[in-house]
Amino acid sequence: MQNEIPEIKVDALVPPEMAAKAEDVGVKKAQLDALDMFALAVLAGAFIAMGAVFATTVTSGGIAVKAADGTTALTTGLPWGITRLLGGLAFSLGLILVVIGGAELFTGNNLIVMAWTSRKVSTTALLRNWAIVYAGNFVGALATAALMFISKQYLFASGAVGANALNTANTKVGYDFGQAFALGILCNALVCMAVWLCYSARSTGDKVLAIVFPVTAFVAAGFEHSIANMYFIPMGLFIKDFASGDFWRLIGSSPDKFANLTWRNFFVANLLPVTLGNLVGGAVMVGAIYWFVYLRKKVKGVAR
User: What is the pLDDT of residue 298?
Assistant: First the structure.
């Protein structure tokens, strides 16, 4: 009938509908203008960095604990797991800003593989998106780290915030390749599950709730996110290389205690294996599996 009122659905989308939506979103992301894509990626890098700033701040404290290697950490005095939980809840801000604010995040964009596997996105377009977005994320995260250093926020709480940033960065460059790779897989499986769950959402509140628990879980468990590390590790490096003697006196330590925290180790020991792990966790363990279950039978013989 001409005057028939269309059905209005308020229920959350179910997985087959989510898969179709993920496929459509992947096509749109791959077709973005390169300059727009880069600008949105810079925003996403900054958004994730702000989540990292929030997490660093809330997990900083003023109780000094000396480690076996001679470094001094300032803790909150709360149990380790509770501190990690608080950090994860705070870090969720980053992905909330990305998803709801609208930005291009490399780790979440691993789900474009669903459209690629359905032959709706070419290999060139997929790699173009990942390369541009990864570069933009790096610029946004690094610029945020530089701005945070200039702000001297690391001196807050008698240097506790800076000490926390230093120890976080130092820990991240201390993993061996296999460990960092595995932690990267686990991380982006959860991040992409958060994005996947958002495809079911009908409201902003739905999206926030879908994001908070997977993201909190990966942070609390200590998994590794390549884009977050583009903030965490440079922030530690800026403090190590450029902080004044007053800061080191405040925390009772010195730069030589962080000899392993170098730009080379940032790129080779952390960013490389973590990025590869993120690709496996997001593109394979989430995107490819959901494509296989819900979309593979619909693929038409379209050449790439």
Answer: 76
Global pTM exceeds 0.70: yes
How many residues in the chain? 304
In the chain, the number of structural domains is 1
Alpha-carbon 37 to chain mean position: 17
Backbone angles phi, psi at 77, to 5 degrees: 85, -5
Instruction: Quote the CA–CA distance of 224 and 49 in Å, as a whole number.
Output: 14
* Tokens representing residue 272 in the block: 């490389």
Q: Which residues of the chain have pLDDT under 50?
A: 1, 301-304
Written as one string, the DSSP assignment of 174-193 is TS-HHHHHHHHHHHHHHHHH
Residue 42, domain CATH: 1.20.1080.10
Residue 182: name the closest of 214, 221, 147 by CA: 221
> Does any domain span residue 302?
no
Which tokens belong to 3?
Answer: 């005057």
In a domain, residue 303? The reply is no
Residue-wise pLDDT tens digits, 46-77: 999 999 999 999 999 865 555 656 555 566 67
User: Does residue 6 sit within a domain?
Assistant: no
212: which 2 tokens?
A: 């908070």
Phi, psi of 66 (to 5 degrees): -90, 130
3-state secondary structure 274-289: HHHHHHHHHHHHHHHH
pLDDT of res. 77: 76
